[in-house]
Write a structure and sequence with these properties.
0% strand, mainly alpha, 5 helices
């Protein structure tokens, strides 16, 4: 890659960045999205995740360690 083509790529990249707005609508609605996510997950989400982890450790993990780990590593 020549010096002039490196400059061209850098100039193109700088032009693209300068076209971006300073703040996006996504940044302004982050709070709303977080609230919606919490409502969608439900109050018992942490308990469900803990139960799932217990189930994985009690059954699935052993099978994966015996059957997959020797070939695929870990």
């Amino acid at each position: 890659v020549t010096h002039s083509s490196q400059f061209s790529y850098a100039f193109f990249f700088a032009c693209c960045l300068s076209a971006l707005p300073a703040s996006s609508p996504a940044q302004e609605t982050t709070g709303d999205a977080s609230k919606q996510l919490l409502e969608a997950l439900g109050a018992d989400h942490a308990r469900k995740m803990a139960d799932g982890l217990k189930l994985f450790k009690s059954g699935a993990r052993e099978v994966l360690v015996k059957s997959c780990l020797p070939c695929h590593g870990g």
